[in-house]
Amino acid sequence: MSLRNELVRLGLRWFIKRRSRGQTLESWRRELAGMVALIPQPPAGTQVAHLDADGVRIHRIATPATRDTRHVLYLHGGAYVSGGPAHYRHFTWRIASAAQACVWVPEYRLAPEHPFPAAVEDAVTAYRWLTRRGIHPPQIAVMGDSAGGGLVFAHLLKLRDEGILLPAAAVALSPWTDLALASPSLQRNARADPMLCAAQVPGLARFYLGGADPRMPYASPVYGDPAGLPPSLIHVGSDEILRDDAVRMADRLQAAGCEVTLEVWPRMPHVWHLLAPFVPEAGRAIRRIGDFLRGRLADEAQAAVRGNGIRAKTTL
What we know:
- By secondary structure, the protein is of the alpha/beta class.
- It is 36% helix and 15% strand.
- It has one domain: Rossmann fold (3-Layer(aba) Sandwich), CATH 3.40.50.
- The protein is built from 10 helices and 8 strands.
- It starts with a helix and ends in a 10-residue tail after the last helix.
């Protein structure tokens, strides 16, 4: 672990975790909106466009390293109640460069105004829109962080159950996969986690669920049958309250015969990848993600062959 990471952990504990206690959703959203102006713009040469994906606004990010045959659908975090593509503009270009891909970030609807299953529906809409643009599923990976990491697997289960050809790979960073809040680390790591406040999580889950069963697989994918899902890479920090959400999801994937790589990084805070300008471990993690995605996203010729394959079977 780097000295920079230890200093960042102290800063997060003081300025984020300590301040979040008792904070309302409205004040949290106001703070996040005010932070947008402070988020660095992507470097020169990065192309950013905003499009309509069948009613879901989507941001397209490409860098000079981007290849037209590689695509990443990125589902942002924010506990399903906050955040958006603008909060990730210092990060998504790094993924585009590392994976040599075009990154697409949808503005999925947020709770509590739009509770479950709105986010899942919008993720599916964005994916299907990409495929209708002539992008073959073997050329697409789905990636997300925190709530977006859980949404990666929830949306994949939905695609599979609807018989839609699945993407080539999935990446989940510190995923929130259990809205029933049954993971032991939620309590065991409550003090150790330098960023997230465990006491806030039940309220955030209620905002998103809107009365739905928290063990529904499209809300909490750790309770689903992941058979047939694509190769997955999962990153999580050892001290996170969501550590066991990641570990249990990886266990479910492995038990179902899916290819999965779980990496538990010592003492890394929640989605440390977003701290790339400050924490060297973030850069290393992004490079590992790039290696994983480049190894699984098909080129145009391969995609044409794979695109004629058998669709995923519907789970009964």
